[in-house]
């Protein structure tokens, strides 16, 4: 899986594509860790192009969220499709990973 | 051959190695089954896909010897349910069933719980030298769809 990355100065948007699964999750999590270590701890994961997520993808998001918060930042998700929203709800993770409709909405307060 | 007498189910089968690249083939197998059964509710297909991929992930991640485990997936679409059977040649093990969803900050341990949440039946047996999973979702149920559009 490829993912796009755009550094907006105040925050970084990461946009994975396709299946966010056990193949795709480790490289995205590694990139999040690198960004957080470099002081870029305000992250938005734009999920508009993700058509399927599994528990590995969820694990990467939770791991990234924890890393970002430990550095005083946050990880927010935007534009999740039906399957992603279903899985977030089934795992109760929508309580800590609020799915914002758009990247712009996810930026509130930053 | 499927005749006028309406067979009780149509079968879709995949055989190969249980390696990460083959997960796409599992998605494709279900997509083929769903494509030939337009009567299936996309929500049922989506949740069933979520479940069978989690079980497939377990075989890919934990099946040993790594890279040498072979699997066979069979999907059957019936009037009132969709079923998948997965046989793999990995080592014997005992899945930890019924543990429920881990805490919100856990980075792993959700796969089987997620599958259990959307399936009506999930069975595991060691049969000879293969692991056998059977996964069933009854169609048109609300299981796993609370709060979804």
Please describe what this structure looks like.
The complex is a heterodimer of chains A (110) and B (149). Chain A is an alpha/beta fold. Chain A has one domain: STAS domain (Transcription Regulator spoIIAA, 2-Layer Sandwich), CATH 3.30.750. Chain A contains four helices and seven strands; from the N terminus they run E-E-E-H-E-E-H-E-H-E-H. In chain A, strands 1-2-4-6-7 form a five-stranded mixed β-sheet. In chain A, helix 3 links the parallel strand 6 and strand 7. Chain A is globular. The mean pLDDT of chain A is 96. Chain B has 149 residues and is α+β, with helices and mostly antiparallel strands. Chain B has a single domain, classed as Histidine kinase-like ATPase, C-terminal domain (Heat Shock Protein 90). In chain B, 28% of the residues lie in helices and 27% in strands. Chain B contains three helices and five strands. A five-stranded antiparallel β-sheet of chain B has the order 1-2-3-5-4, with helices on one face. The longest helix of chain B has 21 residues. The mean pLDDT of chain B is 91. Chains A and B meet through helix 2 and helix 3 of A and helix 1, helix 2 and helix 3 of B.
């Amino acid at each position: 899986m490829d993912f796009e990355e755009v550094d907006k100065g105040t925050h970084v948007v990461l946009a994975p594509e396709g299946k966010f699964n056990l193949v795709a999750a480790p490289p995205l999590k590694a990139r999040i860790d690198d960004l957080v270590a470099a002081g870029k701890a305000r992250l938005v994961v734009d999920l508009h192009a993700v058509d399927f997520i599994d528990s590995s993808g969820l694990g990467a998001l939770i791991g990234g969220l924890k890393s970002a918060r430990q550095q005083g930042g946050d990880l927010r998700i935007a534009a999740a499709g039906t399957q992603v929203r279903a899985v977030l709800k089934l795992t109760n993770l929508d309580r800590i990973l609020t799915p914002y409709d758009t990247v712009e909405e996810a930026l509130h307060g930053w | 051959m499927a005749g006028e007498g309406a067979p009780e189910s149509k079968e879709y089968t995949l055989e190969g190695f249980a390696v990460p690249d083959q997960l796409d083939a599992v998605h494709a197998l279900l997509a083929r089954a769903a494509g030939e059964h337009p009567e299936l509710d996309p929500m049922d297909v989506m949740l069933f896909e979520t479940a069978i991929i989690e079980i497939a992930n377990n075989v890919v991640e934990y099946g040993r010897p790594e890279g040498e485990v072979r699997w066979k997936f069979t999907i059957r679409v019936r009037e009132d349910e969709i079923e998948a059977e997965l046989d793999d040649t990995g080592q014997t093990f005992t899945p930890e069933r019924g543990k429920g969803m881990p805490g919100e900050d856990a980075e792993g341990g959700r796969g089987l719980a997620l599958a259990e949440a959307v399936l009506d039946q999930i069975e595991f047996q060691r049969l000879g030298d293969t692991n056998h999973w059977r996964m069933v979702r009854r169609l048109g149920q609300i299981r796993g769809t609370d709060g979804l559009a």
